[in-house]
């Protein structure tokens, strides 16, 4: 009986000792946050900086749509994972690319999807507009070769958004005429009137432009020479140009690059290196070769002294790359760490950047 009791006691103690280990094994890892420093463009060379918080002492990898390889974020400190990825020319990143993180701790894994967008809100709006551009008709004109009778021709000219599909319709859509884009934003076409047509100057003709999922129409009488102007569309382009011109020299910080710059040597390093090299060459050379070795050593020593002094005088500078509102790119160099970060709105005056609210 005592033996049985002892065995039960030992078994219970062993089980109690295993419980903490079992609890540790059963613990599921957690990812509490996943963020990115938003950028203005997803072009080759753009650096994406990711940060994640979660269970410490694990391995965290990112899967980004459009990037072939996984991106590992090293653990910067307990439970904090940070890392950067530079967009390659081989990548096929899109503004809507999904980012998911997988954290592995021991034999357990957890996956989370980043809710934050890769692009800044301003860049998102710009990308959305580019993907689904607006379409407008600014001018619609008709003409004819005479009476609106069989055999005569009616001509159509439509001005509007370039690159669209253009057409006009008569008889409430029964007659459709495709227009050709003769030059960007100018569409023309002709229709030969049939004897069965019954057109008058008051007959309504509709011009339609389609671009992607967008469509717009403008209606006017068939009367020759009558022109319809869409004042809203005509004024849109000057208004947009004025908006851009309203902040001359403005742009968005695209990158802040740290650059190591070698210093400019003076004659001290060159002379010291030349003397040291000459002495060494003199010791190595023998006979007639003594002079040659001395000269070679002096020249080589001078070059080495110059290079060493350049490295000793090297400094760190910061190149701020700005994508200007007019589409150009500017780089401004700072001797000290600038206050600007990627995505900052700035204004360039001469060679000085200032923040713009």
Helix content: 25-40%
Pattern of helices and strands: HEEEEEEEEHEEEEEEEEHEHHEEEE
* Class from secondary-structure proportions: alpha+beta
Cα end-to-end separation: 85 Å
Strand content: 35-45%
Please tell me the overall pLDDT. Answer: 78
Low-confidence stretches: 18-25, 233-245, 275-281, 292-296
Give the C-alpha Rg: 37 Å
Shape, please?
A: elongated
Please give the domain count. Answer: 3
By CATH reckoning, the class of the largest domain would read Mainly Beta
Number of strands: 21
The spatial strand order of the largest sheet comes to 15-14-11-12-13-10-9-16
CATH architecture descriptor text of the largest domain? Sandwich
Q: What is the CATH third-level topology name of the largest domain? A: Immunoglobulin-like
Largest sheet: 8 strands, antiparallel
Tally of DSSP helical segments: 5
Could you characterize what this model shows?
There is one protein chain. The protein is α+β, with helices and mostly antiparallel strands. The protein folds into 3 domains: 31-127, Macroglobulin (MG2) domain (Immunoglobulin-like), CATH 2.60.40.1930; 137-242, Sandwich (Immunoglobulin-like), CATH 2.60.40; 250-355, no CATH class. The protein is 26% helix and 39% strand. The chain has 5 helices and 21 strands. The chain has helices at residues 2-26, 121-131, 231-245, 267-284, 289-312; strands at residues 31-36, 47-54, 59-64, 71-73, 75-77, 80-86, 99-105, 108-113, 137-144, 153-160, 165-170, 175-183, 186-192, 204-211, 214-221, 227-229, 250-261, 315-324, 329-334, 345-349, 352-355. An 8-stranded antiparallel β-sheet has the order 15-14-11-12-13-10-9-16. The protein has a 5-stranded antiparallel β-sheet with strand order 19-18-17-20-21, with no helix packed on it. Strands 1-2-6-5 form a 4-stranded antiparallel β-sheet, with no helix packed on it. A hairpin with an 8-residue loop joins strand 9 (137-144) and strand 10. The longest helix has 25 residues, at 2-26. The N and C termini lie far apart (85 Å).
